[in-house]
């Protein structure tokens, strides 16, 4: 199953974007129990975890995005989201969604976020 993240774009610092990662090909019973996350890879750097959401609803954020980013899921739509507010140039990178569940570990094709100062 290949996921496809969308919603990236170019914004000025202080702006907002909302990333989406639909997972229509993952069955609902697996989706609702999956661990989900967003990662990003900045130019010249390794991929890093940005936000994580486990099936019980607990969330974890990288310190640099706490208070600005919100990870969420819509089980009915089987979609993972990342709301990004007060974007900073350091948030620039390719963002990838990841869904890890009983049926496997799925990654999305990245979506590019570019934040200009």
Shape: globular
Individual helix count: 1
Major sheet attributes: 8 strands, mixed
Unreliable spans = none
Q: How many strands in all? A: 11
Please state the average pLDDT score: 95
Radius of gyration: 13 Å
Indicate the topology.
Elements lengths: L2 E2 L4 E4 L4 E6 L5 H4 L3 E7 L6 E6 L5 E3 L7 E6 L4 E6 L8 E9 L2 E6 L1 E6 L1
Parallel strand pairs: 1-10, 2-11
Antiparallel strand pairs: 3-8, 4-5, 4-9, 5-6, 7-8, 9-10, 9-11
Descriptive notes:
Strands 1, 2, 4, 5, 6, 9, 10 and 11 form an eight-stranded mixed beta sheet that branches. The chain has a three-stranded antiparallel beta sheet with strand order 3-8-7, with no helix packed on it. It contains one helix and eleven strands. With 117 residues, the chain is mostly beta strands. The radius of gyration is 13 Å and the shape is globular. A hairpin with a 4-residue loop joins strand 7 (69-74) and strand 8. Helix content is 3%, strand content 52%. 32% of the residues are buried. The model has no long low-confidence stretch (mean pLDDT 95).
């Amino acid at each position: 199953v290949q996921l496809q993240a969308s919603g990236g774009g170019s914004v000025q610092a202080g702006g907002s974007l909302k990333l989406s990662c639909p997972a229509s090909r993952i069955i609902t019973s697996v989706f609702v129990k999956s661990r989900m996350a967003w990662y990003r890879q900045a130019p010249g750097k390794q991929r890093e975890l940005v936000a994580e959401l486990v099936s019980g609803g607990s969330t974890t954020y990288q310190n640099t995005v706490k208070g600005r980013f919100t990870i969420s899921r819509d089980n009915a739509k089987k979609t993972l989201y990342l709301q990004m507010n007060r974007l900073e140039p350091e948030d620039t990178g390719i963002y990838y969604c990841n869904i890890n569940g009983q049926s496997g570990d799925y990654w999305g094709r990245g979506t590019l976020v570019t934040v200009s100062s």
